[in-house]
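Q: Convert this sequence to structure tokens.
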Amino acid sequence: MKRRLIDGVEVQRSSGNVFADLGLPDADKLKIKSGLVIEIRKAMRRLGLNQQEAAKRMGITQPKVSDMMRGDFSNLSERKLMDCLNRLGYDIEIKVKPTSAPVGHLMLAIA
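A:
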């Protein structure tokens, strides 16, 4: 990544995945999960649901919703988060295609 000085502070451009920039393991999965949680939060706001109502609709406990809203989604799989979005009225499409790179990557596209 390219680094430069701005007002005497060294900065570098993000790769587009803050989890990878921080060197965290499973950065691609964390990016996907965080994107799904952002959409869950938007859906809750749009539907006017509190945590208890959202939990009931998503089929999870209110403490798990609370954890999710605080950024702790380690106890929920990508599949469960997608199920939560389905229950909040979202369609999810998964697209699989070959890549020219030796190893493919995960990507979340929000419409």
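The chain has a mean pLDDT of 90.
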